[in-house]
Amino acid sequence: MKYAVTALLLAVVVGTAMFAPGGTADASHATLKVMAPANLTAGDSVDIQAVLNSAHGGEAVPGATISFYMDGSFGGVEGKVLLGQAITDKDGVAHLSYLPRTAGEHQVHVEYLTPGEGEPEVATWSHDVSGAPHQFYQSTAGVQIPGLNVWLLMAVLAAVWAILLSVAVRVIAIAGAEPEPVAGAPASRSRATGDW
Amino acid sequence: MEAVTTARERLERAALAPVTGTSRWYYAWVAFLLMVIAWGVYAYSRQLHDGLIVTGMRDRISWGLYITTFVFFIGISHAGTLISAILRVSQARWRTPITRMAEFITVVALCCGALFVIIDLGRPDRVLNVIIYGRWQSPIIWDVLAITTYLTASIAYLFLPMIPDLALFRDRLAGRVAGWRIRLYDLLSVRWQGTAAQWRYMGGAITTAMILIIPIAVSVHTVVSWIFAMTLREPWNSTIFGAFFVAGAIFSGIATLIVVMAVLRKVYHLEEYITEKHFVYLGYLMAAFALIMIYGNISEYLTTGYKMEEGAEFHFRQLFLEQFAGFYWFYLIGGLVVPGLLILLPWTRNIWGIVAAALLVDAAMWVERYFIVVAGFRVPLMPYKPSVYAPTWVELSVMAAGFALFALLITLFVKVFPILAVWEVAEDLETPELAPEAGRLPSGAAPEPAGGGSR
Fold first, then answer.
1. B100 and B419 Cβ atoms separated by less than 8 Å
2. Mind telling me how many Å the CA of B241 is from chain A's nearest CA?
3. Which domains does chain B show, CATH number per domain?
4. A156 close to B (CB below 8 A)
5. Predicted complex ipTM exceeds 0.85
6. Do A174 and B198 touch (CB under 8 A)?
């Protein structure tokens, strides 16, 4: 019995010694860091750099795919919104051009999934975006014809409504017209009452 | 002179008769319409409660009966513009007994049509977002602007020539109808006494409004077509959509006017004023627009079918051979060719033949709008299985309520406002060749082409 307990304890110790370093190694194959300013202005583009190094020795890891995410919600559904993906260069740096559109505090999650491994390396970049919200869409396509724009539409519309207003003014003038007798008609009668 | 005076008295009686007398049939008709509307309101309440899932509309075919009916109503609103404004500009005097009906169809159809846009929204409480968050680049905004402007101009154009007639009602009906009506006539007749200055002001206002309303009306249906044509979707990607929509609108507008005219003529015994001549002249106009529509269809389908770009083949098959073939051939043959024949062939060129043609045109033009909307959406933009749209009882009920509302508003209008443009018809009485008797066609005789008549 004594030998059996001793053998069991020995097996537990040896097993722990074999498997525990393996899990640690999985999680530390690579280290991921994000380099970007912490304060941004809405509408100003910024270059996010994700730096990927080997956990052992710190060498740069080129040719790896890095994914950039943000937390988002749409139609009441929460989830991760993919901003883009980039490949690390020879220095292990992946670049992503990022255009913050709304003011406030945001987080961008950078992710690297080691081939063959289940758990990704994740780094998070928190940043504050300042500036009032406004439309950032800039139309670049199409042919810009001078004078053919929204102001022309407004001018046409204003002209139409001005003419309609002139009609309304004439109705007011009808109501305000001085009564005058119609030739040959009794004073109490008028064209309105049958004497056309 | 005595004969003219008698004719005037008959005219006044005819104009006043719908207001002063009400039959049991009238109440029964109104009750029926109210029941249909009440059922439609109940159906709409289900839609409000459960959302658009109770309709047949889904993500791929997201417009159905509601938008079809919206386009149809905006189309028939062109009745007033064409009959009243264009014929007034061209001084076609035969128009005078029917202008009021045409103008009122315009206003009622616009109100009913605009209602269907709101009904189509899953969240009607957000309707103002179109204005608040609207963008000038969007055809939806153009549409809102065009329709509101057209509605305002149409109300003005309905109201202006009605002022002397409202004054006539104010004076003639005092003590014969409820007090609120007299107060209403008094208010709306803007203290009309028929002075020279008032006639001058009114003439100027009518002239301004009639010239203004024609381009506005054309713009409205052009812009409605652009809601489709500004989209890169095979059946809608057309440069002639605007012209096609305007022609179709006038076509269905004339048809609706003929139907309404026939009903009111029969119910209120207006045979002396709305004669066969009016039906035939309007029939000629309708036949002319049938030819324009046939030409437009050939031009559109021959050019796109000859090139047969990706997507066009699917659309052609569903329209001419498969999914929608039965109804589409009805539109082409029953809605364009047969009405034209009914009008042009001498033995059907009478009131019944023209009313039958008008009913066919109205049905066919609704069907055409349905195919523009639903068949257009059905063409797949990606290689997925084509969607199917089947309207539910909710949509059918709401649509029926829309048409019942249209009929109800016209029915109520006739009970309150002058159905005939009394003063304009009275002016015609002083011109012997334009007197009502001249409107009766000798048996077998064809009238002169539309637009005839001289001042």
1. yes
2. 21
3. 2-438+447-454 (1.20.1630.10)
4. no
5. no
6. yes
